[in-house]
Each structure stands twice: as C-alpha cells, then as structure tokens.
Design a protein that fits this description.
alpha+beta, Alpha-Beta Plaits
Length: about 425
C-alpha cells in the first residue's frame, strides 16, 4: 500500500498504487435542486453506448429517487453498512469547514474502503466492497417518486400537510454517472491492471483486451458504476464520451465538448469541465473556471460520499428541502454552508448558475459584467438583491462561446403562429 493525499478527507490515506495525477481532471457539478428526473440523460447515454446485446442492464447514467431508490438497489446503504461494521461508531469527521484547499471539509477520522478492507476479513481484494445480486440490477427506476413518511411506520405518509422550507414528506432525485475518481476503487482492485486513468484528462477506462471478467472492479467500486457484460464476459463502464472531450465530435469545431448525458439535460442542472491539478492531487487555483468557483470559492458543490476515500470528481449542489442529517451522510460536513450560500446567492454565484447547459462546449473561463438592479426583497430577515448581470463563457481557445443574462428575456410570438384549433 502507498500513502496518498486525499483533500476531500483532509488527510493522507492508504491506496494500492502510488499517486499519479493528470494535467487536467474531468469533473462535473450537478445541481440537484433543478433535476426533474425526466431521464433524458439516462436515455441519451443508453442510446449512444449501451444498446447492444448483453448491455440491457448497463445504465451507465441513471437518475435515482432518494432515499429508497438506487441502481443497483441499496448500493450506498450496503457499502455504508460494511464501513460501519469494520469501524463501528468511528466513521466521523473532526475539525471544521474552512477555506484551506487541502482540507476544506475538515478531517475524516474514519476508515475508507481501502483502509477498512482488512479490518473485516483478511483477503487479497485490496478494497472493501460487495457484489450485487442479479435481482438488484433488475430495476433501474425502483421506488421512483416515493417519499419518506413518519419514522417507524412503514408504508405511511405524513398527514399533516407540508410546511416550507422543509417538507414533512420528502424525496429528491440523484443523477449519477461514473465519478472518474482520483483514487478509483475499480482500478485498485483489478488483478489484471486492465483499468487506467488517462494522463491527459483523468478519465477512467477499462482496457477490454486485458479484462478477463473477474468482476473485482464491480465489487470494489462503491458507486457501482462498473458493470459486467454477460455475453462478452468483460466489464464495461462510462467512458465520459472521451471523443467529445477530445474535440473530435463533428459539431465541436475541434473544441472540447460536453458528454451526451450533459448535453441532453433539459433541466439545466449539469455543468462539466476540466480542472487544473497540482502535483499533490489538489486542484490548482483557477479562479474563473466555473467548476473551481463552485467547489472552492462559492463552496456550494460537494463530493458524493467523500468518506469512501476515492476522491470522486462528481460534485453536487445539495437539495434545500431534505433533512440535513441525511445530506451530511451523503455529501459530508459542508452541507449547511452550501445550502445557505445557494439559498441566498451573492451576485457572482447567481451569474455563474446561469452558465449551466447554455452550450455543448466545455467552459474553461467565465466573466461577469455587471447590470442594473431588477429585484429586491427581504426573506427571513435577510436582504436579497438581484442584478441583471451578464455571464460570458469562454472556450479552450480563449474565444467567447456565449453570453447570457440573469433575467431571461421574454419573447412574444407573432399572431401568425397562434393555434387556431
């Protein structure tokens, strides 16, 4: 085992291989507050990559209804239970949320999937994990739209109605793809060394010529985003649409382009990009890269289950209406600050949030031009002012991709388009 630094955990941890980081890392931010579970992303991926024989159960992109839904079923509950069994009552955080880029969420004092494996049963698997049953892969939309009821009463909903800002009954949609982790569990567990991270963008891929279908990757990935294909007897996973990232899509004009699931999102809840890396694995300061801003400056986007230890490169803006205790388990200690900043956005954050899904091209830099004040109110004793600022996005070549304003324009269609039926 080597020792690597994990800035999500705020400490060093054990990992089977020595640290090696790409020049730029593929990363993304999902704004859960906007997701409507239309499954357009799911079908965009499915129709592009996994529509052939043997791939019926391969949903590389999916949207789950939490807390009951999951694909495979119970994927997060099972790995959390294993971690707690290995390190019972000690899976805790210490310190506090800070501006330190090397430990922004404090320090995780528990055990990761790489550190807890031998605490249960000594073996050669390298990573704590489990293999889902066939039944758990059968229902990609299980419990969709099912809300949570009163504690201890199954199949019952609260009958007291709804009070904002926190609903008496609640659920939310969790859109998921492979996180292309900095320390992938699948890569660590593969006995064939068939899984690798690309040095140019950190995308995690499976070399299908080396893979022998041992399914150690399926067992080890805590997010269960590597899937076994029965008719070819090898594993496959999300490839982050790497031809589009490379700018080889005919529509891209040679510029890096967002993945299919990102480009298809009609809820405008996705933003994808490439972030610069330091030699120690932390993100290099890139103040006007929108992903760097959302994660390290505004601090509204948080990693999914950082306690697993894989340092996922998928980040989420948590839903405002969900009980905080549940969200802290899922996104770590930064939840309260993230929701507070998102609920009361400053001028720059409000402008950056307009960049989501305005173009298929990857945004490398943004600029905000100030506009006039258009709205002012007081909410819960706090003053909120909205300005019609303009957010300008630039591509890899430094050229402007688009510009958009905080206040969306209203277009009145001429009468000739009126429906006469």
């Amino acid at each position: 085992m080597s020792t690597v630094y994990n800035w999500h955990l705020g400490r060093k941890m054990k990992y089977p291989y020595q640290a090696a980081y790409p020049k730029r890392q593929f990363a993304f931010v999902f704004n859960i507050n906007r997701c409507i579970a239309c499954q357009t992303c799911t079908m965009a991926c499915k129709s592009t990559w996994t529509f052939s024989k043997g791939q019926e159960h391969m949903w590389w992109a999916n949207v789950e209804t939490k807390p009951y839904g999951g694909y495979p079923q119970f994927w997060d509950m099972k790995i959390l239970r294993l971690l707690d069994k290995a390190n019972q009552g000690k899976q805790d955080w210490s310190g506090r949320v800070s501006d330190d880029p090397k430990r922004p969420y404090g320090q995780f004092d528990g055990k990761t999937i790489f550190e807890a494996e031998r605490m249960l049963t000594p073996s050669s698997t390298r990573v704590l994990g489990y293999l889902p049953t066939d039944e758990e892969w059968n229902f990609p939309n299980i419990y969709e739209d099912n809300p949570v009821g009163p504690p201890g009463k199954r199949f019952q909903y609260h009958k007291t109605g709804v009070k904002l800002p926190e609903h008496k009954t609640w659920f939310f949609y969790l859109a998921r793809i492979c996180n292309h982790c900095t320390y992938p569990g699948c890569l660590a567990a593969c006995p064939r060394k068939a899984i690798y991270k690309r040095p140019e963008d950190g995308i995690v891929l499976v070399d299908q010529k080396r893979c022998r279908g041992y399914r150690k990757c399926v067992e080890a990935c805590p997010y269960k985003k590597v899937m076994y294909r029965g008719n070819t007897r090898i594993s496959e996973k999300c490839v982050a649409c790497y031809p589009r990232i490379e700018g080889k899509d005919p529509e891209s004009g040679g510029q890096p382009m967002e993945t299919r699931c990102m480009a298809a999102c009609i809820g405008q809840m996705r933003l994808q990009g490439l972030v610069k890396m330091n030699g120690d694995g932390t993100w290099a300061e890139d103040r006007y890269n929108p992903l760097y801003y959302l994660v390290h400056v505004a601090k509204v986007a948080l990693p999914l289950y950082p306690q697993f230890g894989t340092e996922p490169n998928g980040y989420y803006i948590p839903p405002r209406w969900v009980p905080r205790e549940y969200l802290r388990q899922m996104f770590g200690p930064g939840v309260d600050e993230a929701i507070e900043r998102y609920a009361y956005p400053d001028r720059e954050l409000l402008a950056v949030l307009q960049l989501f899904r305005r173009s298929h091209l990857i945004i490398f830099r943004y600029e905000v031009k100030e506009g006039p004040k258009i709205y002012e109110t007081t909410h819960r004793g706090r003053k909120l002012t909205v300005y019609n600022d303009t957010a300008i996005a630039y591509g890899q070549n430094g050229k402007e991709i688009f510009r958009t304003t905080v206040e969306e324009p209203i277009y009145v269609r001429p009468a000739k388009h009126a429906n006469t039926i």
